[in-house]
Design a protein that fits this description.
By secondary structure, the protein is mostly beta strands. It has a single domain, classed as Jelly Rolls (Sandwich), CATH 2.60.120.770. The chain is built from no helices and 8 strands.
Length: 94
């Protein structure tokens, strides 16, 4: 389980993925971390224009249902998801 160690939540995005890759909006200029939570198993991929794949490979990250994670990111990046799920993305800064 991930914990918020004094990070400030800023922007929140909610995305529904229907089994095809869905992409977030670009992270804000003050975003240093994102908290990712999902109500079902998903694979994610970060990048400038990412497309997630639903197979375990070197580029994908598996996020199990109901196990939030916090990731260090760069402003302007996006995250893509694949799976049948509702995904919560909370941008955070220090």
């Amino acid at each position: 389980m991930s914990f918020n160690y004094g990070l400030r939540p800023t922007t929140h995005q909610g995305i529904t993925s229907d089994g095809t890759s869905a992409q977030s909006a670009a992270f804000g200029s003050q975003t240093e971390y994102v908290r990712i939570a999902s109500d079902a198993d998903v694979y994610i991929l970060f990048g400038a224009n990412p497309t997630a794949s639903n197979t375990a490979d070197a580029s994908s990250i598996f996020i199990p249902a109901d196990q939030p994670e916090i990731f260090k990111v760069s402003p302007g990046e996006k995250v893509a998801f694949i799976g049948t799920a509702e995904i919560s993305i909370t941008e955070m800064s220090a």
